[in-house]
Fold:
Amino acid sequence: MKLQMHSIHFDADTQLTEFVKQKVNKLETFYDRIVEGEVFLKHNNSDGTDTKTVEIKLFVPGSTLFSQENAPSFEAAADAAVDAMRRQLKRFKEKQMTY
Structure:
């Protein structure tokens, strides 16, 4: 899968990008026809709290799947977003099997 990483308004270090890439690449075990993906890493400083947002967008044949999660750290947000995307991929695959 071709994966594009975008860090919005900051420079992500290689350790963080490799962690997120490793997590997202594991999604191919649930659905092997993923064409490409995009990951957006953002800092949110609203309401005086510093939360991190991870958005994952996966392009599969005939559809685009999206998940977004907020957490105090990028690692926790990435785990939650990948988990949500895993559920979406399983549901999408089941729909494809019924047709």
Observations:
- The longest strand covers residues 51-60.
- DSSP finds two helices and four strands in the chain.
- The mean pLDDT is 93.
- The helical segments are 14-25, 74-98.
